[in-house]
Amino acid sequence: MWEIFSYSFMQRGLIVGNVIGLIAPLIGVFLNLKRLSLIGHTISHVALAGVALGIFLGVYPVPLALLVAAAAALGIEKLRQVGYQGFAELALAIILASGMGLATILISLSDSNVAVYSYLFGSISLVTPGDLQIILPLGAIIGLGVFIFYYGFFFLAFNEKEARLAGVPVDIFNIIFMLMVAAVIAFSMRIIGGLLISSLIILPVAAALQVARSFRGTVVFSMLFGVLAVNSGLIISFYRDLAPGGTIILSSVIILLLTFMIKGGRSIWKGWNFQPDKEGGVRNG
Amino acid sequence: MAVNKVIEIEDLYFAYEEDWVLQAINLEVEEGEFLAFIGPNGSGKSTLLELILGFIKPQRGRVRILGQSPQNFSARGQVGYISQKARDFNPNFPATVEEIVGANLYPEMGFWKILNRELRKKIDRALTLVDMEKFKKKPIGRLSGGQQQRIFIARTLVTEPRLILMDEPLIGVDQEAQGDFYRVINQLHRQLGITIILVSHDLHVISRQVNRIICFAGGKVHPHCAGEFDYNDYIRQAREEDKLLIPRHEHGE
């Protein structure tokens, strides 16, 4: 049972996986509530263009992926504010299409499809000590950032216009937040995979929304479910020799299904124990 | 003591592209007033609120709010605003009443942006003022329309404002809740001396509640609801739009 902990590559995989399992859902809460769930998907696809460019130029691709991801994130924000207010998904689709076009050309120009493949699907068992040195400070920065900007980001997710009026520096906060999203995706790509990181941004939050009754609760449950999915996924994939990224995602899906059941059970229980609400006016939900 | 002017508008013009919405508007609001902006759809009531709040800029003229320009306004906590769309949020948004009200205290949270004990007391006080302290831990989406409206009032009260602007706060709120709403608002006006501006269609009820009515018609404001403001026309349109209200008598001060 404890064999998994005896390999140093798995120890590193578990550490990095847990950090990503915490920060991806953490930023995911704010993203999903801003109705930008598919941003992870968009940015990770666009970041692939950066990866392909790096491989094409023969340099370490992550910084380029970060640069392209940041540009895409800011591009989405600009389009959302200026051209397509109220149509956030259109901004996502425009950036996704542009990024994919660019990535396809750059991938076809570069020789190494294997390297691109590893950024698409990740390789958590190949985490190097160098990766640890990047992911651990990133985790700390994102955690601290969300802690400091928590109420500001919360207000932005709830109502941007009123946040502005209340004195929240909305434009700056949107940029800071989008850069945080880009950083989490670019740095997580090589480990979890560009195609899979967006699932860790969405699924644990979707599960938390089923059980939490407050915003703080949603944040805590999201991170809890993220960590649970990463650890169960890694352990199962290790002993069953399955693809780690896919196993982590399927674990998140199972957690989500369990929360549906818990919520369903809760309302049946409420139905059995129904008593008219003494406070009046509060809907039974 | 000299009377403080909380809002001063001089010779203001505003157009959306080619269409003039407001022309040559002059208006002063004194501290402690409770007034209503009344008028048909598209008469510029909400636009004037947005100009006062600095969301949009006039083409010409001057707006001062608490003696400052709305664009460079620094005393955000002193002005509360409840938009027409305040209750238009996703009812599944996972936030408690306490979290929603607390978010307005953002500028007071200090560097670490924490709701300390003093700020939590402010939340309790604001909820008590609207008689909603029992609902502090409830998810906002589970409350009725009238209760949500009170939470949005509490949200503006938490920063202890001198002025509250409300844009059509009673759309979609039932009669009983409307009565509660006016009771709360009147109390805030009388006991705390807060200046209140209410944009409304409901001329009949409003006339019994407020100190002063400003009527909007033909791109102008009519301090005594006279001139171009055609009361009968207004009533007809409001009826057609099913937004009325029982007509009573000609209004004036």
Please tell me about this protein's structure.
The complex is a heterodimer of chains A (285) and B (253). With 285 residues, chain A is mostly helical. Chain A has a single domain (25-266), classed as ABC transporter involved in vitamin B12 uptake, BtuC. Chain A has helices spanning 8-33, 39-57, 61-81, 88-109, 113-121, 129-158, 160-165, 170-192, 194-211, 215-240, 244-272. Chain A starts with 7 loop residues before the first helix and ends in a 13-residue tail after the last helix. Mean pLDDT of chain A is 87; it is low at 280-285. Chain B has a single domain (5-240), classed as Rossmann fold. Chain B is built from 7 helices and 9 strands, in the order βββαββαααβαβαββα. The chains are: A mainly alpha (285), B alpha/beta (253). The interface between A and B is large, with 32 and 39 residues.
Short description:
With 285 residues, chain A is mainly alpha-helical. The relative contact order of chain B is 0.17.
Number of strands of chain A: 0
Q: Roughly how much helix do the residues of chain B carry, as a percent range?
A: 25-40%
How many strands, which pairing sense, and closed or not: the largest β-sheet of chain A? Answer: none
Q: What Rg of chain A, in angstroms, do the CA atoms define?
A: 20 Å
Number of helices of chain B: 7
At the fold tier of CATH, the topology name of chain A is ABC transporter involved in vitamin B12 uptake, BtuC
Termini of chain B, distance in Å?
24 Å
DSSP strand count of chain B: 9
> CATH homologous superfamily name of chain A?
ABC transporter involved in vitamin B12 uptake, BtuC
Q: State the major sheet of chain B.
A: 6 strands, mixed
What pair of chains forms the biggest interface?
A-B, 32 and 39 residues
Please state roughly what percent of the residues of chain B sit in beta strands, choosing from under 5%, 5-15%, 15-25%, 25-35%, 35-45% or over 45%.
15-25%
> What is the N-to-C succession of helices and strands of chain B?
EEEHEEHHHEHEHEEH
From the alpha carbons, calculate the radius of gyration of chain B and give it in angstroms: 18 Å
The shape of chain B, in one word, is globular
The poorly predicted ranges of chain B are 242-253
What is the N-to-C order of secondary-structure elements of chain A (H for helix, E for strand)? Answer: HHHHHHHHHHH
The parts of chain A where pLDDT drops under 50 for at least 5 residues are 280-285
Query: What quaternary form is this?
Result: heterodimer
